[in-house]
């Protein structure tokens, strides 16, 4: 009896220990082995073996946001616009990667100084600012990628800098992302919020926040996966314009990548690889082909922004956003599936660069994601 109950206690303890999951760091969009893969293409390139990855690195290294001489904006206490923070966040992230890829300390110092300056000053995102959720998601997501790389690569970021950055995520941005009323969390705004929360959860090792984001990916009432992408691959914003459609697809792919890297959830495969179907529908249409359009599939509050839309939009058609390499690497190179239309775009583009609005997504996928 006694032995049996001790055995049971031991079993329960063992199960509890197993359920405490180890976080992977750095572990938002890139783990160390991913950065080593990028480095190996660079080393080979410098030694004379060219590759698309190396060509993309040369463009990345020459980009203004990768420069250790990047001039940051003057941080403010209350965000009432997005552009300055988003540019600075992009520079922090690209300098963080440059630091790890080149070992040049000036890049780490630039990234750290941007993060410290903002987290030491910013107190709030104006709740009356129309884009308060985009301001709390897109730029902060990029800056959290910087923070994650810098923190776990012996770059010299102080404990107080890290703690101040964590406070900014929890006290400035999280409250804005924790609002699901009215027009919040719709379409691309919702998918951006979800990827940001997932990144914040990894950086702060907050399992509650991370799991909340995983659940929102499928179940958010206006941006859960099945509401963003129909079974045919149509986006809830296909009638609006092709830029916002691609922004949303990229957001979803980045969330999938985080959960895949952390090894917690295979979001890529949900609903029979619904995200792949979404990419292919949008790639096919943007390459000039005809696709079926279902006017009953619209975003929540379909009357916003000139909707509901009775036909698919030609606005932005053929302007390819830098989102295709990430999904292709996962589904095709790793998973053996087929994405013929996305591949056509990848081949046309050659070397994927950054976004015109720099914090719209990680970009530079030929360097970052191509295997
Ligand atoms: C949530 O968003 C709505 C607008 O959709 C706004 O009226 C409300 O003040 C916000 N609530 C909080 C707590 O920020
Ligand atoms: C973790 O995240 C939740 C929101 O998901 C928040 O309420 C909580 O305060 C966070 N915990 C810590 C220790 O920051």
UniProtKB/TrEMBL annotation:
One of its GO terms (cellular component) is periplasmic space. GO terms for molecular function: lyase activity. It comes from the Eukaryota. SUPFAM superfamilies: Chondroitin AC/alginate lyase. Keywords: Lyase, Signal. Residues 80-285 form the Alginate lyase domain. Residues 1-22 form the signal peptide. This is Chondroitin AC/alginate lyase. The lineage of its organism: Eukaryota, Fungi, Dikarya, Basidiomycota, Agaricomycotina.
């Amino acid at each position: 009896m006694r032995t049996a109950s001790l055995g049971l206690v031991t079993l329960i303890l063992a199960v509890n220990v197993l359920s405490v999951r180890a976080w992977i760091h750095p572990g938002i969009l890139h783990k160390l082995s991913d950065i080593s893969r990028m480095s190996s293409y660079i080393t080979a390139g410098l030694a004379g073996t060219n590759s698309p990855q190396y060509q993309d690195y040369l463009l990345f290294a020459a980009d203004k946001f990768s420069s250790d001489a990047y001039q940051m904006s003057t941080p403010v206490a209350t965000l009432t616009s997005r552009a300055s923070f988003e540019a600075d966040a992009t520079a922090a992230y690209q300098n963080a990667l440059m630091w790890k890829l080149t070992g040049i300390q000036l890049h780490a110092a630039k990234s750290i100084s941007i993060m410290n300056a903002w987290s030491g000053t910013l107190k709030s995102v104006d709740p009356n600012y129309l884009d308060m959720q985009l301001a709390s998601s897109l730029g902060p997501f990029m800056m959290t990628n910087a923070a994650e790389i810098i923190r776990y690569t012996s770059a010299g970021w102080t404990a107080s800098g890290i703690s101040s950055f964590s406070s900014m995520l929890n006290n400035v941005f999280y409250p804005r992302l924790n609002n699901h009323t009215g027009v919040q969390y719709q379409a691309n705004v919702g998918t951006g919020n979800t990827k940001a929360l997932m990144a914040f959860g990894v950086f702060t090792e907050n399992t509650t926040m991370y799991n909340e984001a995983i659940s929102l990916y499928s179940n958010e009432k206006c941006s859960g996966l099945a509401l963003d992408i129909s079974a045919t691959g149509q986006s809830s914003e296909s009638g609006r314009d092709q830029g916002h459609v691609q922004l949303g697809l990229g957001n979803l792919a980045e969330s999938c990548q985080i959960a895949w890297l952390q090894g917690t959830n295979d979001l890529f495969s949900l609903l029979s690889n619904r995200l792949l179907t979404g990419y292919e529908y949008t790639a096919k249409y943007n390459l000039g082909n005809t696709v079926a359009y279902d006017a009953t599939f619209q975003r929540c509050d379909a009357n916003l922004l000139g909707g509901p839309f009775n036909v698919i939009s030609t606005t932005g058609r053929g302007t390819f956003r830098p989102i295709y390499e990430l999904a292709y690497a996962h589904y095709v190179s790793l998973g053996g599936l087929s994405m013929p239309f996305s591949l056509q775009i990848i081949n046309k583009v050659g070397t994927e660069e950054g976004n015109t609005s720099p914090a719209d997504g990680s970009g530079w996928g030929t360097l970052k994601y191509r295997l």
